[in-house]
Structure formats: C-alpha cells, structure tokens
Design brief:
Strand content: over 45%
CATH class: Mainly Beta
Radius of gyration: 17 Å
Structural class: mainly beta
CATH topology: Elongation Factor Tu (Ef-tu), domain 3
Strand order of the largest sheet: 1-3-6-11-9-8
Largest sheet: 6 strands, antiparallel, barrel
Number of domains: 1
CATH architecture: Beta Barrel
Number of helices: 1
Amino acid sequence: MKRAKQLGSVVFDMNSLFIREEMSPSNIMADTVMSAAGSHIVYEADILTPYITLDSKQYGWIREQQAEELKSMWGQIGLVFVLTYDDDSTETVRMAHEKQLALTPIYEGSDKYTAVIPLAKA
C-alpha cells in the first residue's frame, strides 16, 4: 500500500500518511441562488474528479509546523502541488476545498497533530 511522504514543500518526516483514493462519479455539486423575482435558481454539475485523501489515522502524526504550512497551503486557491509517495512516484493534486481539512492536536496543548487532508487530482 502506497503512503504519502511529501505534499508540495511539506515533508511528512515523522510518519508517512495513509492514502484513501475515492472515485466519486455520482457526487453532485449544487448551488441555489434567489432570483430578483423571488424564485430559486439551481445550478448543478457532476463531480468527476478522483479524490485522494491523506489520513494520518491513529499514529501518523505531523508536527505543528507542518500543520501550519498545510493551513497556509489550504488558503491558496487555484494552486496545484506535487504529491510524492513513499515509492518516489508523484501526482499533481489540488486542495479539495469542496471537502473539509482536519488538523487536530492529539491532546490539548500538543505540538503533534492528526491530519485528514482532502486532495483532488489536477
């Protein structure tokens, strides 16, 4: 099973992260807006992008500095990053802002975090 050892400039040096690859051809992205006349206008589109979620699971911790770098990367819209696996193969990915980034300290005041990082192949 492949694991992620680097995302962009963030190297997961404590532990590599687990990969959950998700093919989501049935997901639908939708938005509703109110027209000037007061009726709803619905926009819908299929999401055909294969997702890759990096997951530290129980003991795949990352350091606080890496968590801060990931938050900074998350805040940059439209950028792509290189995901490097433990076998040195790579893929180009983007942050999947349609999902939720989760960086959680392992206990209050800890400098180690668990991470769930949603990505999509670019």
